[in-house]
Structures are given as C-alpha cells and as structure tokens.
C-alpha cells in the first residue's frame, strides 16, 4: 500500500508552534495549493492542513511565514475527536516528514526593502531572529541555513 503526498503551495498564515507535554515540538500550518484547472474562468485552490514534528517543526516555525512558497512531502492522515458539543469531528491532514523552503528569506527581505515586491508585501523586521526552545536567540551562520 502507498500513502505518499507531495504538495507545492503558499502558507495562508504563519506556522503555529506548540510543544507536547513530553516536550516534543509540533507545528501546524495551512498550505494553499492551486488546482490545475479553472471553474467558470477563475482559478481555485485547496487549503490543506499540514503537521510537522520535532526539529522539522522548529525549522518551519523559525523560517516559514505567511505567503512563502514551500514544498511539503508526507502522508495523509485522518483523525477524529469529539468537539465541545459531543459530536465526532473528522480531520484530514498531511503529516509531513520533509519540507523544502522554495523562497529564500533574504530574497523576501531585499524585495520588501527595495520596494520590489509584487502586490501587498510582507513587512520584514530587521531584528527578526530564530529562537530556541527556551526563547533565547539561536546563533546560526549563513552557511548553516537550508536555503
């Protein structure tokens, strides 16, 4: 049997990083993936929930932002839970074991600073730094960045 998914799309919001009670990092975000066809002349997109775990979760939380293009590889998972009203809710998501950042952070920063961005641009804070588990800045050289 095979359960393998590869998606390319843009984040609809910043990733949400949380930690389990045992200290394992988990990140959730939604990816907008264009459909290959148009309905009534308008393109449509699917909004797919993505979940990443451990170090990949921390990397996604540190480097991905709303609007960034990325590729996600993983498997489809359907889980259920009971909501506040006692109704069973089915949740379909992609549990990712590989995420590729398809746009560099420096490219986005240069586009915003030079006014070269197309459409509404994301504001990049010059003091933005990735944080470790305890909230202190992580010392990362340019050679260690994945893009």
From TrEMBL:
SUPFAM superfamilies: Nucleic acid-binding proteins. The keyword DNA-binding applies. Keywords: DNA-binding. This is Single-stranded DNA-binding protein. Homotetramer. Pfam families: SSB. Residues 109-147 are annotated as: Disordered. It comes from the Bacteria. One of its GO terms (molecular function) is DNA binding. CDD domains: SSB_OBF. The keyword DNA-binding applies.
């Amino acid at each position: 049997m095979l359960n393998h998914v590869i998606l390319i799309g843009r984040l609809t919001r910043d990733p949400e990083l949380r930690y389990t009670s045992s200290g394992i990092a988990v990140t959730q975000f939604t990816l907008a993936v264009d459909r290959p066809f148009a309905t009534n002349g308008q393109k449509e997109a699917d909004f797919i929930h993505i979940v990443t775990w451990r170090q990949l979760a921390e990397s996604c939380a540190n480097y991905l932002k709303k609007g960034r293009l990325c590729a996600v590889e993983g498997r489809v998972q359907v889980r259920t839970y009971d909501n506040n009203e006692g109704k069973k809710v089915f949740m379909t998501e992609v549990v990712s074991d590989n995420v590729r950042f398809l746009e560099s952070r420096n490219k986005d920063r240069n586009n915003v600073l030079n006014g070269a961005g197309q459409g509404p641009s994301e504001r990049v804070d010059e003091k933005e730094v990735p944080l470790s588990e305890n909230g202190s800045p992580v010392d990362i050289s340019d050679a260690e960045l994945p893009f």
